[in-house]
Amino acid sequence: MSTETIDTETLENSVQAGVDNLFRSGWEGALKTILFALLLLVVCLVVKAILLKLLDRALDRLTQVEKSLHTFIRSMANILLWFVTLMVVADALGINASSLLALVGVLGLAVSLSVKDSLSNLAGGLTILGTRPFKVGDYVEIGSNSGTIQEIGLVYTSLTTVDNRRILVPNSVVVDAEVTNYTAEPLRRVDLKVTASYDASVERVKQTIQEVVNAHDLVLSDPPPFARLSEYGDSALEYVVRAWCANADYWTVYHDLLEQIKVAFDREGISIPYPHMEVKLRRE
Question: DSSP assignment, residue 249?
C-alpha cells in the first residue's frame, strides 16, 4: 500500500472523526460549531485580503522588482494564506489538521516530480528576476539566439530577433547559457579593421582615418578615437580603428565610418589591395 493511500485513508478517518464529534453534542451544538467555523472563515478571508493589499503596496514601492516576480510573490502568498485558512477552519470543525498537512505534503511531492522540468524553468525565472542580467528592451545574445527582450516570464524568456522572429527560451537554458547584454552600458566602442597598400605612408593613412572619425557627429571625443597600424598582411597593411559612441548609435557609426573611410581613401589616392593571383602560361 502506497504512502499516498495511507495518508488518504488517514484523512478520511480524521474527517469522519470530526463529523462524529461535530454531531455528538446534537444538532444545536453542531450548528454552533459550524457557525463558529464560518465566522473564522470570514475573519481569515478579511485578514488575507488586508495582508495581500499590504504586500502589493510594499512590492509597488520596490521599483527594482520585476512585474513577473511581483505576481509570483503575490501568488505564493495567496496560496499560503489559503492553506492557513483551511487549517484554521478544519481545526474549528474538529478535523485533525496534521492529517490534512500530511496529505498536502504527499500531493506536493507528486506534483513536483511530474512537473520537475517546469519547476526547473520556474527556478531559472526567479534567478533571472533576482539577478537581473537583462531587462525588457535590452538586446542580448543567449547562447545561439540573439534579439531584443520582450518579456521575462517565470517559465520562458521571450525575445524578438532582428528579422522579427519571436523566440521563447526556457529559463533553465538562459541560466545555464552565456548571456551577452549589448545594451546594458550607455556607451559602446566601434571596432573596425581597415587595410591599405604598403606604398601608402603610414602617417598619411592614420591621419586620413582620424579626420573621418573626428568629423563624425556621433563619435565621442572622450574617450578619444584611436587609429594605429596593427598587422603586416600578405598584400596590405592592416589598421585598427576604435571609436566610442552612444549605445543606440552603434550601427549608424559603424556603417558610416566604413563608407566614409573608403571615400576618403579614394580621395587621397590610398589604395586598398585585395588578394589576387598572377598566372603565367609558358609555351613549350
Answer: G
Instruction: Give the C-alpha distances (Å, rounded to integers) separating 24 from 28, 29, 95, 99, 281.
Output: 10, 8, 14, 21, 116
Residue found by looking up cell 557627429 in the block: 217
Q: By C-alpha distance, which of 217, 226, 146 is closest to 192?
A: 226
How many Cα atoms are found within 13 Å in the side-chain-facing hemisphere of 42? 5
User: In 197-266, which ranges are E strands?
Assistant: 226-232, 237-246
Using CA atoms, how far apart are residues 229 and 204, in angstroms rounded to an integer?
Answer: 12
pTM: 0.59
Q: What secondary structure letter does DSSP report for 224?
A: P
User: Residue 213 to residues 225, 246, 256: CA-CA distances in angstroms?
Assistant: 7, 15, 9
100: cell is 490534512
d(CA 216, CA 228): 18
Q: Measured between alpha carbons, how far is 96 from 93 in angstroms, rounded to an integer?
A: 9
Please choose, from the candidates 179, 177, 189, 151, the residue with its C-alpha nearest in 3D space to the C-alpha of residue 71. Answer: 151
d(CA 121, CA 169): 10
Distance from C-alpha of 156 to C-alpha of 124, rounded to nearest angstrom: 9
Residue at 212: amino acid letter:
V
CA distance 61 to 260: 50
List, run by run, the mean pLDDT of 10-residue segments along the chain (284 residues). 48 53 57 78 89 83 61 77 82 67 60 58 76 88 91 85 92 88 93 94 95 95 93 92 95 96 95 77 78
Q: Closest Cα to residue 177, out of 138, 134, 135?
A: 134
R_g of the chain, CA atoms, integer Å: 34
CA–CA dist 192, 239 (Å, integer): 8
